[in-house]
Amino acid sequence: MEDEPLRNPFRSEADAFRLLVIMGGSVAAIVIAAAVGGPWLGVPVALILLAAGTRATYRWLKVSISSPDEDEEEAPVGTNHAEPVSSPELDPSENT
Questions:
Q1: Which of 15, 17, 73, 90 could hold 9 in an S-S bridge, CB 3.0 to 4.6 Å?
Q2: What value does the mean pLDDT take over residues 68-91?
Q3: How far apart are CA 26 and CA 48, in angstroms?
Q4: Residues 27, 49: contact at Cβ < 8 Å?
């Protein structure tokens, strides 16, 4: 199985901010759960958020850098390709 390279989240400001928001939201949810229900509610919430956040972040980072974005449209067929050049020397129909 060939592993795809992982995206580096610190190469762009948007990716780094996304990780910061994920971590901040998780910490806020854990603190609220611990304040409401004590450690009996805070620890399970922390474990669930840790597992879910790790899985979601890994799947997001696994996206290949070269894959097209969802909002990019594909170019019409033939617009990005070089047209083949026919040469009289290579054309088999003119061998008479």
A1: 15
A2: 56
A3: 10
A4: no
Residue with tokens 């580096």: 8
DSSP 94: G
What's the pTM? 0.55
55-78 burial string, b = 16+ CB within 10 Å, else e? eeeeeeeeeeeeeeeeeeeeeeee
Q: What is the pLDDT of residues 41-67, one digit of tens each?
A: 999 999 999 999 888 888 877 775 555
Closest CA to 48 of 30, 74, 73, 61: 30
Place of tokens 């805070």: 42
Query: Cα separation of 64 and 61, whole Å?
Result: 8
Tell me which of 77 and 54 has the higher pLDDT: 54
Contact 85, 27 (CB under 8 A): no
